[in-house]
């Protein structure tokens, strides 16, 4: 049944997004890029890919920030095209994707307001995907109370803020806690929304979101070691979804070191590999923990890419849109990384990106 | 000789000579001390120069590492610059100043004074926190190098200044003070010699006059005795004349 | 002179966004009564703003070391070259996009001159 009517509304857009996906850089293109000696070469190499002449009008010397910005702009244009052609419920689904960026932007504005900066200049710093029409209205707010009210009125994020924060919380809590609290609410909501879309979207998306939630949980746990974040507060930041939920989350909330995190994660087959080679690092003290954790981050990225690639194996579902965005984001990160390595002459690390196809 | 070159405006007396000689002695001692100080400072300065040069190059590498770790943060976390800028409140990374004494010059040295702070502990909580932590450490290391370099550089600036001042003094003593004192001494000596010669000449003159007078008196006496038909007694008046000479000398000459 | 550097314990920075972010992460940031000890310079920043910040930081009594990105120092080179106070000591540091060039450093220039003599 699903497949029967899917193409009526969404067939065109799915075709478009799969077309876009074909433009994602391949292994050999990456190989070419990593051979570049200067950012000029880099620009030339990129013009042979789907990116085309996107950097053609940029003045030399090229900065890595410009490359990242321009690449993001292409992604944003693509997304906006999809979004403007979408109908319910895909349009709603696409909106959900933007909420994640919106949270970052709102948090940025909150930071600015807390420190009494002119928030208008912050608009430039916002992620273009998270920009919403009423955002300038938030800049009018001069104190946190007003900002909180306008967030509730003006933004689609209202339920997340209302659900877990009060105006006074914005003042008191660390900005990172606010961000993660809101993000947790968003993830859970997105998860619920995907459940209403029915199979196969539900299956595909819930797998990805569950991983995203687990990744956050593990990251928050590891990153809160040695900080003044209490265990109760830590537990409040864990999304109530994912494969580690609920008993894994409970255990993580009490974890004191990385070994305990490892034990929890070993209960889930797919996550076991993340902690390979970490068993001996616990004994060697804290220095190895940091090195290992950066490696863990890398493995998370790998898994994310892998899951998102899987989404393309199934037709007639919305997961491809989400996955495309994520893969493209990873690609932009890769490009920035390679450009950074070229610019800073760190050729030995240039292979540390995560190839997609 | 005494007229050439600058000299102090002074009365040429033995007293002044002694004083000036003492001052010259003092100037020579001062000169050699200052010269030693200058040499010591220069040695130190050269060492610091080399270190500054090295440290500057080292800094280039260290800062490159640091900015690379920043790239890692951007890769994992995204743009955190604004958050970081706004969250900065109290410096947890400060420096302490200590003093070091090189040949009487106080050189300040900076020392890292780091207190554990929690300003950015939660940055990148959801993602990339470890990279942030790593970047934090790498940058802290980099700043330690910078602080070290700053110490060297401050020492460099101060030493440079002090060495210049010392050089000026050494040169001033060597080329102005000492020649002037030497000239003064020469002048005094020559003046004194001149006075000696004048005195000697005057004495000669006086002696000559006295001799002539004595001779005239003797002739007179002989003439008188011849008139009286007596044989003159040669020796006694001679002795008297000598006595006269001595007594006259006593009157005129002060030494 | 001994008293003049006793109270100096802060570092100040004039630099581009990345350098500042990194240095602040390490914990050198200090903000009191709307007085910051760092200035973010981007392509839009006026040279006069940089000059003013440079003057302010060099005149403040609590700053021991002033760090400045070399490419920014380049913009106010005459002022930097003229600066010869011992405190705060001025350090030119490289930035991400501008590797360190020893030949432009005002201190190193003096070093080289002295070595050349």
UniProtKB/TrEMBL annotation, chain A:
It comes from the Eukaryota. InterPro entries: ATPase_csu/dsu_sf, ATPase_V0-cplx_csu/dsu, ATPase_V0-cplx_dsu, V-type_ATPase_csu/dsu, V-type_ATPase_csu/dsu_dom_3. Transmembrane segments: none annotated. It holds the Pfam family vATP-synt_AC39. Keywords: Hydrogen ion transport, Ion transport, Transport. The keyword Cell membrane does not apply. The keyword Cytoplasm does not apply. Belongs to the V-ATPase V0D/AC39 subunit family. Subunit of the V0 complex of vacuolar(H+)-ATPase (V-ATPase), a multisubunit enzyme composed of a peripheral complex (V1) that hydrolyzes ATP and a membrane integral complex (V0) that translocates protons. V-ATPase is responsible for acidifying and maintaining the pH of intracellular compartments. This subunit is a non-integral membrane component of the membrane pore domain and is required for proper assembly of the V0 sector. Might be involved in the regulated assembly of V1 subunits onto the membrane sector or alternatively may prevent the passage of protons through V0 pores. V-ATPase is a heteromultimeric enzyme made up of two complexes: the ATP-hydrolytic V1 complex and the proton translocation V0 complex. This is V-type proton ATPase subunit. It comes from Hohenbuehelia grisea. The lineage of its organism: Eukaryota, Fungi, Dikarya, Basidiomycota, Agaricomycotina.
Automatic annotation (TrEMBL), chain B:
Keywords: Ion transport, Transport. Residues 246-255 have a biased composition (Basic and acidic residues). Residues 232-243 have a biased composition (Acidic residues). InterPro entries: V_ATPase_D (IPR002699). Residues 208-255 are annotated as: Disordered. Coiled coil: none annotated. It holds the Pfam family ATP-synt_D. Gene3D superfamilies: 1.10.287.3240. Signal peptide: none annotated. Belongs to the V-ATPase D subunit family. This is Vacuolar ATP synthase subunit D. The lineage of its organism: Eukaryota, Fungi, Dikarya, Basidiomycota, Agaricomycotina.
TrEMBL record, chain C:
It is a peripheral membrane protein. Gene3D superfamilies: ATPase, V1 complex, subunit F. V-ATPase is a heteromultimeric enzyme composed of a peripheral catalytic V1 complex (components A to H) attached to an integral membrane V0 proton pore complex (components: a, c, c', c'', d, e, f and VOA1). It comes from Hohenbuehelia grisea. Belongs to the V-ATPase F subunit family. Subunit of the V1 complex of vacuolar(H+)-ATPase (V-ATPase), a multisubunit enzyme composed of a peripheral complex (V1) that hydrolyzes ATP and a membrane integral complex (V0) that translocates protons. V-ATPase is responsible for acidifying and maintaining the pH of intracellular compartments. Keywords: Hydrogen ion transport, Ion transport, Transport. It is found in: Vacuole membrane. SUPFAM superfamilies: AtpF-like (SSF159468). This is V-type proton ATPase subunit F. The keyword Ion transport applies. The keyword Nucleotide-binding does not apply. Its main location: membrane.
């Amino acid at each position: 049944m699903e497949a029967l009517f899917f193409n009526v509304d969404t067939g065109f857009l799915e075709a478009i997004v799969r077309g876009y996906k074909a433009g994602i850089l391949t292994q050999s293109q990456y190989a070419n890029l990593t051979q570049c000696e200067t950012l000029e070469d880099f620009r030339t190499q990129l013009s042979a890919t789907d990116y085309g002449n996107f950097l053609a009008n940029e003045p030399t010397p090229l900065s890595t920030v410009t490359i990242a910005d321009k690449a993001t702009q292409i992604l944003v244009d693509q997304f906006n095209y999809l979004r403007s052609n979408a109908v319910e419920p895909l349009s709603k689904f696409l909106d959900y994707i933007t909420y994640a960026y919106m949270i970052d932007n709102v948090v940025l504005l909150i930071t600015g307001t807390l420190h009494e900066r002119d928030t208008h200049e912050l608009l430039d710093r916002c992620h273009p995907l998270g920009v919403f029409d009423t955002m300038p209205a938030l800049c009018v707010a001069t104190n946190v109370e007003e900002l909180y009210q306008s967030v509730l009125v003006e933004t689609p994020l209202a339920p997340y803020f209302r659900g877990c924060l009060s105006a006074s919380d914005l003042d008191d809590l660390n900005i990172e806690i606010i961000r993660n609290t809101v993000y947790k609410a968003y993830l859970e909501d997105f998860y619920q929304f995907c459940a209403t879309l029915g199979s196969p979207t539900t299956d595909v998306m819930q797998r990805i979101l569950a991983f995203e939630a687990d990744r956050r949980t593990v990251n928050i746990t590891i990153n809160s070691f040695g900080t003044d974040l209490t265990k109760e507060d830590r537990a409040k930041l864990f999304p109530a979804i994912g494969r580690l939920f609920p008993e894994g989350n409970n255990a993580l909330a009490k974890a004191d070191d990385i070994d305990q995190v490892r034990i929890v994660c070993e209960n889930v087959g797919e996550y076991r590999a993340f902690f390979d080679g970490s068993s001996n690092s616990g004994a060697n003290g804290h220095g190895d923990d940091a090195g290992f954790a950066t490696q863990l981050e890398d493995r998370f990225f790998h898994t994310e890419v892998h899951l998102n690639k899987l989404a393309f194996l199934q037709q007639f579902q919305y997961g491809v849109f989400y996955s495309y965005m994520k893969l493209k984001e990873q690609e932009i990160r890769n490009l920035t990384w390679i450009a950074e390595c070229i610019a800073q002459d760190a050729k030995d690390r240039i292979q540390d990106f995560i190839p997609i196809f | 000789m005494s007229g050439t070159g600058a000299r102090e405006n002074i009365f040429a007396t033995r007293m002044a000579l002694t004083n000036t000689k003492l001052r010259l002695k003092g100037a020579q001692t001062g000169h050699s001390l200052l010269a030693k100080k200058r040499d010591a400072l220069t040695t130190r300065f050269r060492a610091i120069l080399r270190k500054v040069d090295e440290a500057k190059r080292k800094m280039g590498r260290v800062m490159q590492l640091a900015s690379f770790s920043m790239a890692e943060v951007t890769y994992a976390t995204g743009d955190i610059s604004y958050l970081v800028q706004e969250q900065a409140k109290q410096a947890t990374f400060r420096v302490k100043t200590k003093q070091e004494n090189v040949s009487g010059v106080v050189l300040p040295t900076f020392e890292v004074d780091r207190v554990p702070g929690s300003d950015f502990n939660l940055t990148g909580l959801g993602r990339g926190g470890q990279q942030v932590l790593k970047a934090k450490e790498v940058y802290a290391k980099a700043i330690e190098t910078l602080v070290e370099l700053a110490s060297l550089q401050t020492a460099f600036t101060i030493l440079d200044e002090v060495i210049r001042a010392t050089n000026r003094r050494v040169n001033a003593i060597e080329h102005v003070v000492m020649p002037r004192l030497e000239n003064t001494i020469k002048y005094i000596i020559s003046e004194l010699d001149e006075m000696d010669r004048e005195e000697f000449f005057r004495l000669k003159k006086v002696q000559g006059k006295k001799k002539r007078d004595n001779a005239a008196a003797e002739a007179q006496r002989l003439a008188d005795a011849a008139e009286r038909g007596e044989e003159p007694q040669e020796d006694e008046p001679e002795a008297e004349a000598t006595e006269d000479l001595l007594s006259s000398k006593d009157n005129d000459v002060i030494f | 002179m001994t008293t003049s550097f006793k109270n100096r314990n802060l570092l100040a920075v004039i630099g581009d966004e990345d350098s500042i972010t990194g240095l602040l992460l390490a914990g050198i940031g200090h903000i009191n009564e709307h007085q910051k000890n760092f200035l973010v310079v981007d392509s839009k920043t006026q040279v006069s703003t940089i000059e003013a910040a440079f003057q302010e930081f060099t005149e403040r009594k609590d700053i021991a070391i002033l760090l400045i990105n070399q490419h920014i120092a380049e913009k106010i080179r005459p002022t930097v070259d003229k600066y010869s106070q011992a405190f705060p000591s001025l350090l030119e540091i490289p930035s991400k996009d501008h590797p360190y060039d020893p030949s432009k450093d005002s201190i190193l220039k003096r070093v080289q001159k002295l070595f050349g003599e």
